[in-house]
Structure formats: structure tokens, C-alpha cells
Amino acid sequence: MLQDCPFYAALWLCPCLIHRSGLRFQEARLRDAGCEVIRAERVSGTSRDGRDELARIMEFLHAGDELVVVKLDRLGRSTRDVLNLVHELEAKGAALTVLEPAFSTKDAAGPILVTVLGMVAEMERRFIRERQQAGIEAAKAKGVYRGRKPSVPVEKVRHMREAGHGPTAIAKALGISRMSVHRVLSGQE
After folding, report:
1. How far apart are CA 131 and CA 134, in angstroms?
2. At residue 152, what are phi and psi to the nearest 5 degrees?
3. Are residues 70 and 107 part of one domain?
4. How many structural domains does the chain have?
5. What is the spatial distance between Cα 12 and Cα 29, in angstroms, rounded to a whole number?
6. Residue 132, class by beta-carbon neighbours within 10 Å (0-12 exposed, 13-18 middle, 19+ buried)?
7. Is the CB of residue 69 less than 8 Å from the CB of residue 98?
């Protein structure tokens, strides 16, 4: 499938929840597909922010190259981000190849499948968030959900303010941001 390409680029994106066996499986799939360069990052695909490996490989790709991913949701869960990536690839003369289900943007149906599967991945992400929120609300109703432990020592902030310290001094002394100090002092926390 990829043998005609002068360069094979593979992006192996691994959400943090995948077990090691899942990581090995993805790498094996990419190697079996003929990928010579495999880059991996353990980040969420919900946004392009913080996706350093993706940025590097996008800079490296040239005309005739292929970006190969095992599944489209490894590339991103936002339809807009995925479509922007495909647009950038097309502008460079490169292509996107997805192994499961097998398609490429070099084919006539490829761009349509990217759009449809990108929308499905985004919808799936929304469903996950909705289920998570419903679970949190149910736990709160039962009195078992308390949220995460506070990271800002609210009482220390208030005590230091009463002692005459300014927000910057409080933030430095406690190792927190000034914004956190201002939130406490304004009653938001």
C-alpha cells in the first residue's frame, strides 16, 4: 500500500489510557504497513495544543509523503482540527492514510471519509463528556462526589492578606499563581 511513497511518515498517537499492549499493537500495525519513521506522543487528541510530535512531523513532511495513523481518532477528535491537518497535508502535496478503516486522502472517497469519521470521533468525545458529567451529577446527588482536592490553600491566602501581604507576595510565598490569589480574595474559591 505505501511502497510507492519516497518517505513513509507515521504518527503513533497514544491517549494516556491505552495499556502498553495497545501501544505495541499500534506500532506493529504501522511497521506492517511499511512505515519507516514512527513518532509517538502520549497526549489527548482533543486539541492540537501541546502536540509537539505532530507539529514536528507536519514540518518534516514534503510532497509525495504520507502521514499514516492506525485510526483517525489518533490524529484528532475535533473535526475542524482533522480537516485543517488534511488541508495542510494537501497544500504540501502529502497525503493522509488511515489503516482502520483503510482509506487514504489520495483516493476519491478519502476526503469524504475524513470528514465523516472526524465528525463521528467528535460526537463520540461529546458523548463521553456527557456520560462523565451525568456520573458526576449522580455522585454529587448521593453525596459521594467531592471533586478534586483544592490546590490553593484558601485559609493561608486569606490569613496572609489580613497580615498585609499583597497578591504577588502571597503567590510567591505559596507557589501559586496571582490569579489563584485573586480568585480566593474575590470569593470565587
Report:
1. 5
2. -110, 125
3. yes
4. 2
5. 10
6. exposed
7. yes
Can you tell me the distance from the alpha carbon of 85 to that of 78, in angstroms, rounded to the nearest whole number?
11
What pLDDT is recorded for position 188?
A: 64
CATH code of residue 84: 3.40.50.1390
- Domain residues for the domain of 67 are 8-125
- Those residues whose C-beta lies under 8 Å from the C-beta of residue 154, and which sit 6 or more positions away, are 184, 189
What is the mean pLDDT of the segment spanning 96-106?
87
**Residue where the block lists cell 462523565:** 132
Tell me the pTM. Answer: 0.58
Percent of the chain with pLDDT over 90: 13
Higher pLDDT, 130 or 2: 130
* Type of residue numbered 72: L
Whose grid coordinates read 519507516? 36
**Residue 74 in contact with residue 45, Cβ under 8 Å?**
yes
- What is the distance, to the nearest Å, from the Cα of residue 111 to the centroid of all Cα atoms in its chain? 22
Any domain includes 34:
yes
pLDDT by residue (tens digit) across 110-127?
888 888 887 887 888 889
DSSP state letters, 128-186: HHHHHHHHHHHHHHHT----SPPSS-HHHHHHHHHTT--HHHHHHHHT--HHHHHHHHT
